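Predicting holo structure, alpha-D-glucopyranose bound.
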Amino acid sequence: MSRSDAAALAALAGDHLDLVQAPFTLPRSRILVFREGAGVRVHTSEYERSLEDCRVLDALLIRDASGDALPITRVLPHAIEFGNGTVTVAFAGPGALTVGLGNAPSPSSLACASVEWTTPDGEARRAELGADAPAIRFDVSADRSVVAEASATHAVDVADGEVLWLEWFAKCPVVRDDLQAMTAFCWWVLGANVVELPALGRARAVVPSKIGYVGLWQWDAYFIAVGLRHGDPALAREQLELAFRFPGPDGQLPDVVHELGVLATSDDLPPGDRENLRRAGSTIADPSAPVPLTKPPLAAWALAKVLDAEPADAWAREQLAVIRRSQDWWFAASDLDHDGLPEYGHPYSSGLDDSPIFDGPLPTTAPDLGAYLVRQDLELARFAERFGDADAAAHRTRAERTLVRLLELWDHERGIFRARAAGTDVASDTVVGLMPLLTGRLPEAVVDRLVAALADQRRFGTPWTVPTVAVGDPDFSDERMWRGPVWVNTNALVIEGLRASGHPSLARDLAERTVALVVHGGGPHEYFNPITGEKARTATTAFGWSAALFIDLAVELSASPGE
Ligand code: GLC
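Done. Tokens:
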């Protein structure tokens, strides 16, 4: 891609950088810049810490020579322009910001400006910019302390930031015209969400969000890799490798890899979470009763997709050894009633933490888990055939066995796959009941009922679909996390399920509706209201898997128009 094409995509992404839902940041940087009044404020991005706790500079304002505040006139991935570029804010590497005189439209119009800011403890500071001191640089440390000093390298810093982003945008997938601007923004999100985690050295973890989710969550890494593969297959492989780097001695993969280590059992939960669980009266908070925490077994599904983009056989075989052990772990360690169908021991392991299927006692038998396990054994069988390094028949036999158990959850009368809470049927009608489509092995009559449920206005046929809880279910809420709102990852899995179950045109239709939702909602938010199609109030923004899967769907829709 030419430099000017990359610059055009960067500018399209810049149009979405409102500094409210999408902060100004840089790959690998923990610095986030948000709009505040006519100026900005600066935060750091930290694991399990609220933005409010991570303020480093408040009310940073630029004034021109006559003392008037210069407004923000444009944001590009590499620079915030004040007063039409009279002053710019840019990065000076991942750990510092630089504020300096830019290319004023007419140099005589501005020989100087001033920068004002307050520290979080309320101290007001000010610095003059002029010919002698054209910029000020703010170095932000991990402990949130800031050192401000005059700098003469502003122009070079701005140029370096621009080169870095142009290299990133040169890899941005080219898609259908109507999806290109949002694809550019989503590609920015993936680049912007790159962080370094001390436990992982210089490795680049693309985190779910620099606001709130600063770690590598196991299944987020899968979805993020599926989107990244279209522009940067090496970075996609890096995500999977990081996710698979810390299996437990019994093969279990951790829920999260974060800066302090991993989250793999309820013992590792941050103190805030344990306190919440304790307040809710959960025995899970009891340190003497640790529960394993992981994420759904979709690793082989993601690996197959990443290899489709670019083969890497030797690398794949190493990853497969880890995936096989993690698949075995579910049957050996998480089939608590020993009936051949593993359960979720904790809501976090399902990824649908707040779903009403977890309102009852644990462990939870869930149709999505059964479906993922069948699908993963089928994928593992195909890999075993391709590489000749494992027993394909054993994977197929286990898939068939799991499928039999999964079909026992089918409630013919209501037309739903039910979950069970500690052995008792759960009445909730939720999106997890659609996941058995992913097996591609359901009886036709069952597929027909699920397809009908998707269109049924009392179930999943909401204006913006697919709701995570059926609209007619007493537990439906249009705003609460996993209790109704639409998530891009569950949509992607339903799309995949429709394709696996012989409904490619319905799959395509849902893919169109999913990308339309992200465009309508204004960005790859964490989850969306299924009635209005807007961001749900409590959802975070610039969210990794929503961005990645938007790109994946956009690429697919662009490759085969009108099919
Ligand atoms: C929330 C979601 C979970 C996801 C995590 C990080 O906890 O429920 O599925 O993995 O955020 O995005």
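The chain has 14 helices and 21 strands.
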